[in-house]
Amino acid sequence: MFTGIDEVDWASLRHAYGSAEDVPALLRGLASTDRVERETALDGMYGAVHHQGDVYDSTLACVPFLLALVASREVADRAGIVELLVSIGTADAEAGLSARAGVGVRAGAEVFVRLAGDADPSVRRTAPAALVRFLDEPVRVLGLLRERCEVERDDRVLLALTEGLGLFVRRHPAHAAEALELLTAQSSAPYAPGPRLAALGQLAACAPDRLPPDLVPVALGLLGERSARRPAGRTGADCPHSDGLASRLRRLRPSDEEGSQLLRTLHRGLGDRLDERKALLQGQLTCPDVVDRCNAVWMSAGLFREWRADWSEPVALIGAQLGLGEGRLRDAAVSVLEDLFTLAAPAADDLAALVTSRPDLRVRRWERGAPTLGGPLKALARSGDRRAVPALSEVLDGPVVPDDLGQVIGHLGPAAAPLAPVLRRRLGETTLDSPGVFERAVPLLSAVAALGDAEAVPEVLRLVRGVPVGVRLRDAVVESAVRALDTLGSVGANAVAPEVVPVLRELLGTEHATVAAGALWSVEADASAVLPVLTAELAEGRPRRRAAAEVLARLGPEAASASAGLRRMVRADDLWERVSAACALWRITGDADLAAPVLRAAWSENPYTRRTITTCLAALGPAGTPLHDLLRTEVAARRRHLAVPGGGRGSQDVLEDERLVGACGEVLAGR
Q1: Are residue 100 and residue 121 in the same domain, yes or no?
Q2: Crossing angle of the two packed helices 78-89 and 121-134, in degrees rounded to 10
Q3: Is residue 358 part of a domain?
Q4: Sign of the torsion formed by the C-alpha atoms of 238, 243, 249 and 251
Q5: N or C: which end of the chain has fewer CB within 10 A?
Q6: Domain-embedded: residue 93
Q7: What's the CA gap between 179 and 144, in Å, rounded?
Q8: Buried b (16+ CB within 10 A) or exposed e, 497-519
Q9: Of 316, 337, 358, at which residue does a domain stop?
């Protein structure tokens, strides 16, 4: 297995952490008779030699030895090594080291032919994907898959064969007919429920015309049959957990990982057939088996983040899981609901009941760092439900304010007004020279700003003027306080102006000049005071020129003297600088001929710019009509603008998308 390993100059090769001289020990560790040593070695391969899917010159040097390891029946845990080889050979690149890695794995693809019939079922499970990806003989590959389907008796291996057939159809469409016949046959009796569900998932992706017309009841029936056959030790609400490090790096495994993957594959294959997907999800959420429901809750998150639809019924069903006494199921439901914001409203009654009955869940404490709001209370507040206010008031009376409380309060709108006095008090109690002033003050600042509480101005000014130089993150605290003044000035300039103006004018000569200029404009609306600062900041290379352009846009025609700098900036290399400059220029000069093409290009290039552009169009009113076609297309789209296939990217994707759609609708309606 290791012939020639000592002849490789490993010290001259590299991996993620430098010299690869430790790689021979990792390779030998994969062949160890000690399980812990094998797992540690595999962790090391993923952690260094194939770090985050990257390929290094040391990765290439490992390929022949990895192929030799999987070819030896004396080596235990070969399935993990095959998975590593598949990952190395399919690294995402068409040239360079990754392409060479693919060539290297394909050169040894004959080993996967032997592994397809290996005595170890875990090895047989890994062989189909490797065969389809690396053996460049489609007719032979299909014959091998067909043969294995006929003789295989292990349901888990049959699932892998079914996935292999689906992959084959996608990779070799000219040879797909027989593979589709095999998949169609496997979707019916006498195959077991699991393989039948797997076949339906592959057909949904490859040949939806071959799906049964009553797909949803068929799939739910198979799910129920499969759950009834699950071994007694695999039932219960033991939902997603992590095991060894190598496994955590590859996937987060639920207790019924196989069942979760089967339904995810089917959902993914159905794509934008949202009526069927909604019906399927609702069926999963009402299954008698708690593990099936837990799997459904987790997979619903991706569905909600990717697609626009009326999700009220499945959301209500997720809310219903909160009171069933299953801790893991409850935690899964809370995790999904807290990222839905206003879309979680159908579950608000269940969330409110949980917040009331379990005060211990209102704050989540961590081994390190400040506490955060507990999921149930956060989800309830983010949904905009006023029943969160009493619980938030109790949290504010506690010893430490959670560091995300301010961001959450803003979602309650006017309903959170009763919290204003205690927020002011807590802000006034903040110790200015404390190393933790940032963590304590910034959440409170965002909260008073969200409430538009002009009475909090003295407490905010105290932070602007009083945090000593040298305190950790002092500048960030000052800027947060100034931004709060900006917001408060926007909602109540007359009440804020007298005591704030001198402080903000003083800041115009500091590193906080740009943010201070924005606040001063909100409070005083004196263009002559802020224009020199903002115009100077437009120079190329200035760190705040994007922020300066955003403030200038608010000045409108009064910022006409800055138009030359903005015209230069609109040709900047940085996309966001171009967008900010184009928005400002359009609002200041009305020059749609220059600004509109820049914004149209940015809209397509980076979906994250769409909220900014829509805000600009709202400020422009009828003058923004040249880009209204973008808004109409957006409103009509079914997929959320930040989503990627498989369920989006971040925890606020739903919120950002709902806000974008709402803003587009308001602009088009002329509001």
Answers
A1: no
A2: 20
A3: no
A4: negative
A5: C
A6: yes
A7: 11
A8: beebbebbbebbeeebbbbbbbb
A9: 337
On whether both 99 and 123 belong to a single domain, the answer is no
623, HSE (Cβ side, Cα atoms, 13 Å): 16
Task: Mention every residue, 6+ apart, whose C-beta is less than 8 A from residue 598.
Answer: 570, 578, 579, 581, 582
Give per-10-residue mean pLDDT for the chain (671 aa). Answer: 91 96 96 96 96 94 96 95 96 78 95 96 96 96 96 93 97 96 94 95 96 97 93 48 40 66 94 97 96 94 95 98 89 96 98 96 85 94 97 89 85 94 93 90 91 92 94 94 92 69 94 96 93 94 94 97 96 97 98 97 97 97 97 97 70 92 96 76
Secondary structure (3-state) at 273: coil
Domain range enclosing 168? 115-211
Give the residue among 28, 70, 68, 64 at the shortest CA–CA distance from 45. 28
* Residue 570: both structure tokens together: 């609109």
Query: Which residues are registered as beta bridge partners of 14?
Result: 19
Same domain, 190 and 275: no
Distance (Å, rounded) from C-alpha 479 to C-alpha 497?
A: 18
Across 44-137, where does the E strand assignment appear? none
Closest CA to 272 of 297, 300, 307: 307
Domain membership of residue 377 (yes or no) is: no
The bridge status of strand 14-15 relative to strand 18-19 is: antiparallel
Q: Does 43 share its domain with 139?
A: no
Assigned domain for 256 exists = yes
For the chain, the domain total comes to 4
- pTM of the prediction? 0.87
Domain end among 211, 242, 262? 211
Per-residue DSSP letters for 487-550? HHHHHHHHHHHHHHHHHHHHHTTSTTHHHHHHHHHHHH--HHHHHHHHHHTTSTT-TTHHHHHH
Contact 396, 374 (CB under 8 A): no
Give the Cα-Cα-Cα angle 414, 415, 421 (nearest 5 degrees). Answer: 85
CA 193/CA 295 separation, integer angstroms:
17
